[in-house]
From TrEMBL:
<keyword id="KW-0378">Hydrolase</keyword>
<feature type="binding site">
    <location>
        <position position="186"/>
    </location>
    <ligand>
        <name>Zn(2+) 2</name>
    </ligand>
</feature>
<feature type="binding site">
    <location>
        <position position="30"/>
    </location>
    <ligand>
        <name>Zn(2+) 1</name>
    </ligand>
</feature>
<dbReference type="GO" id="GO:0008270">
    <property type="term" value="F:zinc ion binding"/>
</dbReference>
<dbReference type="InterPro" id="IPR032466">
    <property type="entry name" value="Metal_Hydrolase"/>
</dbReference>
<keyword id="KW-0479">Metal-binding</keyword>
<feature type="binding site" description="via carbamate group">
    <location>
        <position position="153"/>
    </location>
    <ligand>
        <name>Zn(2+) 1</name>
    </ligand>
</feature>
<protein>
    <recommendedName>
        <fullName>Phosphotriesterase-related protein</fullName>
    </recommendedName>
</protein>
<feature type="binding site">
    <location>
        <position position="214"/>
    </location>
    <ligand>
        <name>Zn(2+) 2</name>
    </ligand>
</feature>
<feature type="modified residue" description="N6-carboxylysine">
    <location>
        <position position="153"/>
    </location>
</feature>
<feature type="binding site" description="via carbamate group">
    <location>
        <position position="153"/>
    </location>
    <ligand>
        <name>Zn(2+) 2</name>
    </ligand>
</feature>
<dbReference type="GO" id="GO:0016787">
    <property type="term" value="F:hydrolase activity"/>
</dbReference>
<dbReference type="Pfam" id="PF02126">
    <property type="entry name" value="PTE"/>
</dbReference>
<comment type="similarity">
    <text>Belongs to the metallo-dependent hydrolases superfamily. Phosphotriesterase family.</text>
</comment>
<dbReference type="InterPro" id="IPR001559">
    <property type="entry name" value="Phosphotriesterase"/>
</dbReference>
<feature type="binding site">
    <location>
        <position position="28"/>
    </location>
    <ligand>
        <name>Zn(2+) 1</name>
    </ligand>
</feature>
<feature type="binding site">
    <location>
        <position position="272"/>
    </location>
    <ligand>
        <name>Zn(2+) 1</name>
    </ligand>
</feature>
Length: 324
């Protein structure tokens, strides 16, 4: 099996851990999202019951789960205090992210809309180096926690990185280069992924420090997905168990296609959970769906144990570790 370079670490909310110790890993989830602007977009986005989320994470842990990447950034409903408490009480590693979400996650008048590129870069660096903020939804963040960000989240809508998003992406790139922290970037149904990658790599961010999300939303994106994987970035697949988009059987075929084209070292898996998907909140699949249902389907399709180990252990260990 591919070995993670000695000395590489992943920054969790409880501190740095050896990168090789983080698997099995869910590479894109949402464990807590506060009420506010996200609720205005979709009430299913709100995840604010500590006991229910903890029940989901315990289920994940019982099946061998070890690390969860929470993809909600500062000021957009992230509850960093609960992420830290959850990790401490369950002994599951949690990676939290700084950065920014799609602008619709912020109300008009929010600081994200007019903060300079330099100030944003310093904010992102500060959460990586000094600690996450527990606030930031209603005003510039001030309540610091003893837990650091291990990832920079970025996002764009269907318009891509141009216009109002450009300074945000530049700030994220600068913070990544100065701290060695990887970037996870949201695409809208896979749109403009190559544009995001070009912007980042033109600014000096290495392709293997980029994790591109939601590329598996639409099965007709399969050829495009191969082009994205060909750039050397990590392709994060999180439409597993999201049956309004497609079946898990179709997802298996997409993963087999990536493997057949030689990209097994770049695949990351997650569920991109919402209230509608968490069993404890009355949802349909639960945080254990990946281990309980989907990985056995991959195995039955002919995906080897070594290839699944890469997707759940080795690839996340490399993708989420910091460059020195």
């Amino acid at each position: 099996m591919t070995v993670v370079a000695a000395g590489r670490v992943v920054t969790t909310v409880r501190g740095d851990v050896p990168a090789s110790d983080i698997g099995p890993c869910h590479s894109h989830e949402h464990l807590f999202i506060k009420k506010g602007q996200p609720e205005q977009l979709d009430p299913a986005l709100v995840l604010d019951d500590y006991d229910k989320t903890k029940e989901e994470v315990e289920r994940f842990k019982e099946l061998g789960g070890k690390t969860i990447v929470d993809a909600q950034p500062v000021g957009s409903g992230r509850d960093a205090a609960l992420l830290l408490r959850l990790s401490e009480e369950t002994d599951v590693h949690v990676l939290s992210c700084t950065g920014f979400h799609k602008l619709e996650f912020y109300p008009s008048g929010h600081w994200i809309h007019d903060t300079s590129e330099e100030e944003l870069r310093e904010l992102f660096k500060s959460e990586i180096e000094n600690g996450l903020y527990a606030d930031g939804e209603d005003a510039w963040p001030r309540e610091r926690l003893n837990a650091r960000a291990g990832l920079i989240k970025t996002a764009a809508d269907v318009g891509g990185t141009i216009g109002k998003y450009f300074r945000l992406f530049r700030a994220a790139a600068a913070a990544s280069l100065e701290t060695g922290t990887p970037i996870m970037s949201h695409t809208e149904l896979g749109h403009n992924a190559l544009d995001q990658i070009k912007l980042y790599t033109d600014l000096g961010v290495p392709a293997d420090q980029l994790i591109i999300c939601h590329l598996d939303r639409k099965m007709e994106n399969a050829d495009y997905l191969l082009h994205v994987a060909g750039t050397g970035v990590y392709v994060e697949l999180d439409t597993i168990g999201r049956f309004k988009y497609h079946t898990d059987e179709e997802e298996v075929q997409l993963i087999r296609m990536l493997i057949d084209h030689g990209y097994e070292d770049q695949i990351l898996l997650g569920l991109d959970t919402t209230r509608k998907r968490m069993k404890s909140y009355g949802g349909e699949i639960g945080l254990d769906h990946l281990q309980r249902s989907f990985l056995p389907m991959l195995r039955q399709s002919g995906v080897t144990e070594q290839q699944m180990h890469k997707m759940m252990h080795t690839n996340p260990a490399k993708a989420f570790s910091k460059r020195s």
